[in-house]
Amino acid sequence: MASTASTFDVSSAGLVIRPVQPTIGAEVEGVDLSRPLTDELRTAIRAALLKWKVLFFRDQSIDDAQQAAFAANFGPLYTHPTTRHDPANKEVHAIAAREDREYEKKLGYKLRAGEAYHTDTSWRLVPTWGAVLRDVNLPEVGGDTIWVDANLAYETLSPELKARLEGRHVTHNFVPALELSGHDYPIVAHRIVRTHRETGQKILWVNFSQQPQILGLELSESRELLEEVLRQYKRPDLQARFSWRPGTVAFWDNRATVHFAVRNYGDFPRELHRILIADEPLWTDL
């Protein structure tokens, strides 16, 4: 069932919404994220997020504390166990290219280039529902982020593939990364086709950065089906590819999307700061 936020008239709050793709991604004007949000603005932003799945705010001048204050309007903040953070602002996680490359070398398995489409914290039984990301150090050229409309990825599957995926569970294995950081958590499996509780949309939801495997199938069939999912994620007509510039903040619904960071900037020490938003279980299958 649609929530009150999903039917809210965002224009009444003074927001200007400029879609970047027909079903996913929109730039938002009319709000200063350095200032506290009114109830009306908070409801309008959440309504826009449910519709467009990822929102982009340009020309924002905010620091870590203001970023955290904005994110906290939408739920409790989650401290990730493996990403670098300032002890004074533990909810703010540094997403740094150099550290990511070093980290991946230690994992014990290699991700195929260009295929690490993922959603954050899917290794948890109840993943974080939203994320707020802002630029800290950007290359002059390159470093885009791609978000995929995971509902449209499902809807454009063939009827045969929908039937083969329905009811199946896929593993999200973050154990090697957690062990490197001295943490422990079991391997979790989520349904590949999930239902978004607030919008009712069906979501095609696989994390290709965490050694996915479909349970109850031979490995060959699991690989075949996962290749079909990955082929969907790579379709340009299902994506919003966003170019960063100084003063940008992105806010996305982690339940409705997968994303991919494009690493085409060489050794430049690109860095962004991310905040994850936790919530009560919002999936109909939990």
UniProtKB/TrEMBL annotation:
GO terms for molecular function: 2-oxoglutarate-dependent dioxygenase activity; metal ion binding. Transmembrane segments: none annotated. Gene3D superfamilies: Clavaminate synthase-like. Residues 17-275 form the TauD/TfdA-like domain. Keywords: Dioxygenase, Iron, Metal-binding, Oxidoreductase. PANTHER family: ALPHA-KETOGLUTARATE-DEPENDENT SULFONATE DIOXYGENASE. This is Taurine catabolism dioxygenase TauD. It comes from Novosphingobium pentaromativorans.
